[in-house]
Amino acid sequence: MTSRKGKSTKSVASKRSRSAARTTTARNEAVRGKTVRDTAVRDEDDEDIDETYDDTEAAPSPLPTGWRHGFTWLYIVDLVVSFAAIVASFILSADTLYSARHPDELLNCDVNAKVSCSTVAQSWQAEIIKFGNLSFPNAFFGIAAESVFITIAVLGISKVVFPRWFSFCAWLGNLAALAYAYWLLSQSLFVINALCPWCILLMFSTTIQFMAFSHAMVTVQGLPSKPRKLATYYRLNIDILVDTFWIVAIIVVILAKDGTYILG
Fold first, then answer.
1. Within the chain, where are the H helices?
2. What is the predicted pLDDT for the residue at 181?
3. Which of 39, 150, 44 is nearest to 87 (CA)?
């Protein structure tokens, strides 16, 4: 009897031991599974953080904001200088017609041998576009071009966003006008050896026009589509320093070449 009770007690103890072992094993597996899941979640979170960081670095810089970078200011500047340029073009066109009718008379802007509209107007550089035996003064094309830029400026003040192709073509036209203005300035300084005051006004107007137009292309017209470096350039106001140096450099070149005649 005692032997059977001892065996029964040992059997119960053995079952309890095996049950405890199974419970411990199950708990250990559950802990390991939870640890694995937690590790996977942390890895996914780390990947999300890394992706967010990479996206932040790859994202383009925000466009600058404020009155100096908006529609109103930029296109008002564009309108003012375009108006000055078209006035200069009208005066140059009138002077060209007057010189053709009165070749022996001086123009009102003939100050001395170096500052002379007549000398520049009578050069071949003043009429580079020809059709057969017909030649057209450059000022005529200036009137047409500045009329377009004035129209763009008025629409810009009204906060019109132009199609990308139109904005790019207008910018190229402005660049071509600037290139011609600088070519004529170089010809006046070093080949013709005479300066035309109205041509100088037209050149400076076209320069400032190009600065404002390029600025507007980036900050209000969205050209190019990812202007990361250009956005930083305008946001940090680096353009003010560059534009000022640009204008001063032109003035220095003109004065260094013919300053005695201009200031004297």
1. 2-58, 71-101, 117-121, 138-157, 164-187, 197-219, 228-235, 238-263
2. 94
3. 150
Q: How far is CA 237 from CA 69, 156, 210, in A?
A: 10, 22, 17
95 backbone dihedrals φ, ψ, rounded to 5°: -65, -35
Reduced to 3 states, what is the DSSP secondary structure of residue 129? strand
What is the number of other CB atoms lying within 10 angstroms of the CB of residue 216?
Answer: 25
User: Each residue of 2-57: pLDDT tens digit?
Assistant: 444 444 554 544 555 555 556 556 565 554 555 545 555 455 554 554 444 444 44
Cβ distance 122 to 99 under 8 Å? yes
One-letter amino acid at 209 equals Q
Model-level pTM? 0.76
Both tokens assigned to 38: 């937690």
For tokens 């290139």, name the residue: 179
Q: What is the number of residues in the chain?
A: 264
Instruction: Compute, in degrees rounded to 10, the torsion defined by CA atoms 203, 208, 211, 216.
Output: -130
Strands 134-136 and 129-131, by their bridges, are antiparallel
- Structural element, H or E, at residue 131: strand 129-131
Instruction: Kindly state the tokens that stand for 109.
Output: 């802007």
DSSP letters spanning 74-119: HHHHHHHHHHHHHHHHHHHHHHHHHHHH-TTSPPTT--SSSB-HHH
- CB of 78 within 8 A of CB of 212? yes
Q: How many CB atoms lie within 10 A of CB 174?
A: 24
